[in-house]
Each structure stands twice: as structure tokens, then as C-alpha cells.
Amino acid sequence: MMEEWNNGGEVNTIFGRRSMRQHLLFLAAWTLLIAARSAAAESIVCLGADESSGTSQAVVVKGCALVHTGQLLPTDKDGTVIGGTAVDAQLAQLLFNLETVLAAAESSTDHLVKLNVFVDSPATALKVRSLFAKRFPGPVRPAVSWICTPLILPEALVALDAVAVVPEQSGPARPSPK
Asked: Which of 81, 52, 43, 76 is nearest to 164 (CA)?
């Protein structure tokens, strides 16, 4: 980009005529924006990302706070399993529950780095894997471990626990909940 400074301390750029101060402020703001976006993108590195399953072999998290969930089940607030025998319906409820927990921790499923998925059968694992490919299209895909086991609620087909990044918040720190 060619810039020409005149004797009046102004520069002609592709953005028009600016004073030196305006030009420097613009460049500083642009640099901060790029640095912030790059830092967020660079804090999560997916290794061996697999588009067909929406997962990664490993995820590296650099310099961020993490939230670790307990095991979540596809239940409503009363503890009733939702979805009957339909894996997709149970997974939808389970992901809703996950999103709710992560939101309370000021995170989201967009920041997932690790899932431990508990299924009642290999057939359920294949179905959940297929649904994950649609749910986690990228660029961040969590590392996933699959555990085939009887679940604590016999009517549940799938359960999970998760680890997600808690993005940095701009603004004053909030006190921890008691």
C-alpha cells in the first residue's frame, strides 16, 4: 500500500485523507483487533481433526481457563430421561443440558476441547458419532473418548462429560458464585 505524507501531516491512503494521528489510531485499533482474534484462535489447536466425525485426536489449549463438567444425562430438570429410545432425541436433550451448563460457566459448545461419551452399545456410538459430525463442523472439533457401558439410568442411551475453554472476558472480574 503506497502512502504519501504531505507537509501538513496528512496521509493519502486507500481509505482517504487522514491526519497522522487518525492514521496511527486506525493502525493501532486494527493491530489490536487482529491480535485479539489471533490469540483466541491460537489458544485452541486441534490435532488430527476429522471432518467425518466432527472430532480431533487431540486438542491443545494454551493459557486459558477451563471448565470441567460432571457427567450429564439426557434428562429434563425433573430427572426424567427425554427422547425414549431415539438416540438423536436423547442426544439433542444431552447437548441442550451441556449448553446450559457451559453457559453458566461463561463458555459454550464452540469452545469444547474434550468429550467423554458414554453409550449403551456400539450401534449408539456410531449414531452419536454421525450426529457429532453435523453438530461440530469445525474449525474447533473436540477430542472424544468413547466408553461403551451400562449407564446410571437404564433408559438412557448416551451420557457425557466435557472440558471447554472459558474465553477471557473484557471488563471487570466477577465474584465467584457461593
From this structure: 43
Contact call for residues 109 and 98 (beta carbons, < 8 A): yes
3-state secondary structure the chain: CCCEECCCCEEEECCEEEEHHHHHHHHHHHHHHHHHHHHHHHCEEEECCECCCCEECEEEECCCEEEECCCECCECCCCCECCCCCHHHHHHHHHHHHHHHHHHCCCCHHHEEEEEEEECCHHHHHHHHHHHHHHCCCCCCCEEEEEECCCCCCCCCEEEEEEEEECCCCCCCCCCCC
Q: What is the pTM of this model?
A: 0.67
The pLDDT profile of the chain, 178 residues, written as one tens digit per residue, is 445 556 665 555 554 555 666 656 555 554 544 444 444 556 788 888 888 888 888 888 888 899 999 999 999 999 999 999 999 999 999 999 999 999 999 999 999 999 999 999 999 999 999 999 888 877 778 999 999 999 999 999 999 999 999 988 644 444 444 4
Backbone dihedral region for residue 48 (phi beyond 0: left; psi -120 to 50: alpha; all else: beta):
left
